[in-house]
Amino acid sequence: MIDWKAKVLEAIDEQQDELLELCSRLIQFPSENPEGDSREISAFIINYLKEAGIGTEVHLATDTMLNLVSTLEGKGGTGAGADRKLIFCGHTDVVPAGDRSRWDFDPFCGEIKDGYMLGRGASDMKAGLAGLIFATALLAKLGVPLSGELALLIVPDEETGGHLGVPWVLERGLITGTAAVIAEPSGPQNPTIGQKGSCWFEFTVEGTPGHGSLQPIVGDSAIVKAAKGIEALQRLWDIKADLPEEVKEIIRISQEYVKEREEYGDTAYQVFDHVTVNIGTIQGGTKVNVVADRCTIQVDSRVPFGVDYRTVLERASSLLLEAGIESEVKGFGFQGNANWTSTEEPIVSDLVESISEVSGEDAYGVLQWASSDARHFRTHQIPVLQYGPAELSTIHNFNEKAPVWQIIQSAKVYALTALKYLGVEGGQHN
């Protein structure tokens, strides 16, 4: 009887240079979104999987945005995993590198230095994506007889809202599953099993133009009025969250985790049960010496359990009215409520157990204060959690990087999770 767990983990150790090279190559594709063009990186991934004997279905959301589905068929049998289908999910797009003069290295170098993989997307999430691809290809090349089916879903659109990625695929029935793992960045011992909701909205304030030399006597500045609205919207934080009993414990665990492990944890823990408010963009005025006749504000609000995102929109409208601003509050982009996957789901316990086995340390799931594609899987009744390598402070920042040891550990966790969740015919895997 083959000990598949030992064989797979040994193979990852022996082939870790190939894993790191794959990660470097993915980073070297400048797949910034916007504008969004996944053709070159997708072609590379398709070819890599083909060399491992894995075919890929290509589903075009647009001419330049390719969704990839690659599948390892299960062997069936009578084991617990025979009727299961696990989805490994990752996205190829990254946020723009921005001002390259503020980077200490080429943002698309994909180099390793001082134990870190460098480059845009290293943490979010090409290191994790590389781990998923590598683990899937390795299971195929080793001929591991998985009882259940393993599918690799690689999407081109997550960073701008993801409308052409995971939801596009799921809504069309192009992939189904009984569970999913997304390689989004997380703590090395702490996968994220739930996220706050999101409520992005904007409002436009109208003013009366005039000559700038006569302000504030002549003209009615839309920017000045908008500033009053911005101040009023800070009170969205005061919305009371009526926390459901079933999430109180995981919120407590997550708050303690943040206090102990995260930068600014002594204050950041509060966001788990409050509505947050970020004034993301302000666009107003036409010229410095003209009184602004219009100003549009875009707001990123994150919504805790126990608060409906529509309540946030309604309260925002009320606060603007109280500030003397009559403007329609329009939702856009991320819109949805907080969501999570129970710790009792097999995929959660299997992945957490895999982390502990690989690392030799305790592991447990926590909530995330941001949002991700996980919410779409949950909408389709697919239990999901996130786990991936990262230097969390560098995500969406200059000088993004990810620890090499976490890249290797994550690949091992992905492979071991597949063995546990799907089962192996005629071999040991636990």
From TrEMBL:
Keyword Flavoprotein assigned to the entry: answer is no
Q: In which pathway does it act?
A: Amino-acid biosynthesis; L-lysine biosynthesis via DAP pathway; LL-2,6-diaminopimelate from (S)-tetrahydrodipicolinate (succinylase route): step 3/3
Where the record annotates domain Peptidase M20 dimerisation, the positions are 193-321
Q: Is Metal-binding a UniProt keyword of this protein?
A: yes
**Example of a GO biological process term:** lysine biosynthetic process via diaminopimelate
Keywords from the named record: Cobalt, Hydrolase, Metal-binding, Zinc
Concerning SUPFAM superfamilies, the annotation shows: Bacterial exopeptidase dimerisation domain, Zn-dependent exopeptidases
Q: According to its UniProt record, what is one Pfam family this protein matches?
A: Peptidase_M20
| Catalysed reaction equations from the record | N-succinyl-(2S,6S)-2,6-diaminopimelate + H2O = (2S,6S)-2,6-diaminopimelate + succinate
What domain of life is recorded for the organism? Bacteria
Tell me which EC number(s) this protein carries: 3.5.1.18
**Classification via InterPro entries:** ArgE/DapE (IPR010182), ArgE/DapE_CS (IPR001261), Bact_exopeptidase_dim_dom (IPR036264), Peptidase_M20 (IPR002933), Peptidase_M20_dimer (IPR011650), Peptidase_M20A (IPR050072)
Q: Which NCBIfam families does the record match to this protein?
A: DapE-ArgE
Q: Which family does it belong to?
A: Belongs to the peptidase M20A family.
PANTHER family recorded for this chain? ACETYLORNITHINE DEACETYLASE (PTHR43808), ARGE_DAPE-RELATED DEACYLASE (PTHR43808:SF32)
Q: What is this protein called?
A: Probable succinyl-diaminopimelate desuccinylase
Origin species, per record, is: Paenibacillus donghaensis
Q: What broad taxonomic lineage does this protein's source fall under?
A: Bacteria, Bacillati, Bacillota, Bacilli, Bacillales
